[in-house]
Write a structure and sequence with these properties.
two-stranded antiparallel ribbon; eight-stranded mixed sheet; 10 helices
Length: 294
């Protein structure tokens, strides 16, 4: 099934969380002089027109990027992320939202390498247009999970992988921990960032429990959950980001970002940051015991 197109959800609150974290991780990567690679296993189209029919249909950016954009004056934890979004827009009108591929490309140096994977034919064609003539960029119309396992470790030895599937197919929740385990066996020092939706169904909790039961260590998690589910959420009342092998001391940065976003979203939301390896599994449900601040 290849019906998912992120343009219908571009700039929503999950994008704000995911992309603000991505900016910080890439900035840390670029502090060292050695080159690195970035892979986006589900890259989408790169750039999103917020005035398009698809984006306007749900209007999720109105309760996502827009309130942060309109109050972006002054310094705050999202300043670097918001300044980057500004580069894709003219004046004070927010017309274009950069996806993770474009955000990464903007932050990477000439010595670094970008690998972008997108399986959806239509989205891949748009991705090619977005990166026409770009240097040090490899595009692949393939299955993102399989491409990941086949391509790590990177020749650069240093790198970050963003895994951001649609979760359109329920088996992705069970496949993801397995694929990550395979990738980390080949590249144990690799850094991975994984986004997931927080759902009424609890599929995300089962995925976290499965990941907790692997041999993967150093798993840091950021979650934002709405206390009252937004009408445009379609059963998604929260957003989570997993970071495997995070930079030293990144927990404080992640918590600052998470709490700032949660407290400044329209509606009541809470944020939590925790180490997945420290969480226990409930023997009755097979799910995680809830951290105290969730």
């Amino acid at each position: 099934m290849l019906s998912y197109q992120h343009i219908y959800h571009a700039g929503n609150f999950a994008d704000v969380q995911k992309h603000a974290i991505l900016v910080k991780l890439l900035q840390v990567m670029a502090l060292k002089p050695q080159k690195f690679a970035f892979m986006d296993t589900h890259a989408g189209r790169g750039l999103y027109d917020l005035g398009s029919t698809e984006t306007q249909k749900n209007g999720e950016f109105n309760s996502g990027i827009l309130p942060f954009w309109t109050s972006r004056k002054g310094k705050n934890p999202l300043t670097d992320y918001l300044e980057l979004v500004t580069e894709f827009n003219r004046g004070d009108v927010l017309n274009t939202y950069p996806g993770s591929a474009k955000i990464a490309h903007s932050l990477m140096r000439p010595i670094d390498r970008l690998l972008l994977v997108e399986r959806h034919p239509g989205e891949f064609e748009e991705l090619k247009k977005s990166f026409e003539g770009a240097a040090n960029v490899t595009l692949a119309k393939e299955d993102g999970f399989q491409y990941l396992v086949n391509k790590v470790p990177f020749a650069e030895r240093r790198g970050l992988v963003l895994v951001d599937p649609s979760y359109e197919i329920k088996t992705e929740y069970t496949e993801l921990p397995k694929q990550l385990s395979q990738a980390l066996k080949r590249w144990p020092q690799g850094q991975f960032m994984i986004w997931y939706p927080v759902l009424e169904s609890g599929l995300n909790e089962r995925m976290l429990a499965a990941l907790r039961n692997t041999n993967i260590k150093d798993i840091l998690v950021s979650e934002i959950r709405y206390k009252t589910m937004p009408k445009e959420s379609f059963g998604m009342y929260g957003s989570g980001v997993i970071i495997i092998n995070p930079p030293f001391g990144f927990e404080a940065t992640l918590n600052e970002l998470t709490q700032y976003i949660a407290t400044h979203l329209p509606g009541k939301a809470t944020g939590a940051v925790f180490w997945l390896n420290n969480q226990q599994i409930n023997p009755e449900t097979g799910l995680l015991f809830q951290p105290a601040n969730r």
